[in-house]
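REQUEST FORM: STRUCTURE PREDICTION
Request ID: SP-0412
Submitted by: Lab K.M.
Chain count: 1
Length (residues): 210
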Amino acid sequence: VAHRRNELIEVATRLFLERGFHNTSIRDIVRACSFNIASLYMYVSSKEDILYLVAQELMNNIARELFETTLVPGSARESLAHGFSSYCRICDRLRRPIRLLYREVSFLPADRRADVLRTVADVVTFFERIVRQGIANGEFRNVSPRLAALNILMLCHTIALHTREVRDLAKLKHYIGLQLKFVVAALTTETGIKKKDAAKRGVAGCVKNG
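STATUS: Completed
RESULT:
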């Protein structure tokens, strides 16, 4: 059962990417699978059901891999760097299925679409918790954690949604570094910056007077 389900998702994903959801029929999917249409209807009753399986599998895999990222309990900034880098690489590897999700998710029934979007919300929550930690320990300034997390999500998704433009600008590693600097700059506490500046001035003054 698991093997047939995985085959169905793999074949449907490929055909939806190649032809689009509306231009792919259930018979097209069956012809590309190793089992017959009677077996297919044991798992699904419509093409929308197949799209739901594809979307659910994609988001579950993304969330599972992201949540395995090693975080640093004592440093929100380091945790953010690890999480951001991990999610950017996930988005790069799964850029075509992510584009498919953006393009076709609106065709799912409302309850199925809500299920998929809940998993997307879980990814946002992953980054929201890091931002909240940073605000609590004084690493980040007092911003809206949810909005900051949504911004981080979209910077990662840009790799999938605008692949050509991103690749024209920078290689993946460079893109991650540049965007991470922007995110950290937006989140860094003003108090922390002032303290660092004051410390530098103090050191400089000691050297001058010494």
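NOTES: Confidence is low (pLDDT under 50) at residues 197-204, 206-210.
Reviewed by: T.R.
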